[in-house]
Recover the amino acids of this structure.
């Protein structure tokens, strides 16, 4: 099978194909982040790197059997105040995916993205000719991560108007808790908040992180132990500020972030923690993608 992966990142697609038992003849990757390419080539040295998606032309490639990608989501994100959607500079790169889908005419395709406004959701579904399957990574990992997957792989349903809907079933719930993936320490949450690229900027062991966690519920914070969490949970904001001790909390480790994304342990070991956080936060939950790929005949 010849695979073209756009916005390839650290090549989560290759891990998922490998996990699904699908043999790959050639894997072409379009990516521009140097540290992402470094991780990919370390783990999959035969990957053919093509550079920017803007420079990729279907005519230059052999017959592509599978086109995959997760186009940039920043302009769809609820954290983005402008929410330009498909008109945004980054999320508008979806049109490059659409262009190459038309140029390559693969047998199978898969596009992943975040929850978005209804207009963008409808537009993407109409342009790709299918409505997505929506899966939360909480079923296979220790984090909450709701994503939409537009694909022609697997079972389908056509409504009275001929609209196609992906009918890939939900994966089996593995009942993995956030606490289960920790190397040490304690969390009061059943599931981690969705791992994001911003985890690379999370200061971790500072009072501001504790405040954001306890007062506003943002970010992922690991406590030294259960007693430490219970101590802060009974304090006012002012009391927390006075009594805060550096070392009572920490940020996620590189290994824990790999576990949340069901990435093989040590896959990102060639780069530093914050670089890995950037890639893992932008990446795919491998067990969800391999579940989808398992329906390829």
């Amino acid at each position: 099978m010849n695979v073209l992966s756009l916005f390839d990142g650290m090549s989560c697609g290759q891990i998922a194909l490998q996990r699904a038992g699908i043999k790959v003849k050639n894997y072409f990757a379009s990516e521009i982040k140097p540290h992402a390419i470094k991780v990919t080539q370390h783990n999959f040295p035969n990957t053919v790197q093509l550079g920017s998606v803007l420079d990729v032309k279907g005519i230059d490639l052999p017959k592509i059997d599978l086109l995959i990608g997760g186009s940039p989501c920043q302009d769809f994100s609820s954290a983005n105040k402008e929410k330009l959607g498909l008109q945004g500079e980054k999320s508008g790169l979806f049109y490059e995916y659409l262009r190459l889908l038309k140029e390559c005419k693969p047998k199978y395709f898969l596009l992943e993205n975040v929850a978005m406004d209804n207009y963008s959701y409808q537009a993407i579904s109409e342009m790709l000719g299918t409505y997505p399957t929506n899966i939360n990574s909480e079923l296979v990992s220790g984090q909450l991560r709701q994503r939409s997957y537009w694909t022609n792989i697997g079972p389908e349903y056509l409504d009275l108007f001929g609209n196609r809907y992906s009918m890939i079933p939900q994966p089996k719930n593995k009942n993995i808790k956030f606490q289960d993936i920790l190397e040490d320490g304690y969390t009061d949450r059943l599931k981690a908040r969705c791992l994001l690229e911003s985890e690379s900027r999370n200061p971790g062991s500072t009072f501001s992180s504790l405040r954001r966690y306890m007062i506003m519920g943002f970010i992922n914070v690991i406590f030294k132990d259960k007693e430490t969490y219970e101590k802060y949970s009974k304090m006012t904001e002012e009391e927390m500020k006075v009594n805060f001790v550096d070392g009572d909390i920490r940020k996620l480790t590189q290994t824990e972030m790999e576990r949340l994304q069901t990435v093989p342990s040590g896959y990102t070991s060639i780069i530093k923690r914050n670089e890995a956080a950037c890639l893992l936060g932008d990446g795919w939950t491998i067990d969800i993608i391999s579940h989808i790929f398992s329906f390829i005949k």
Notes: Residues 2-169 form a domain with the Rossmann fold fold (CATH 3.40.50.150).
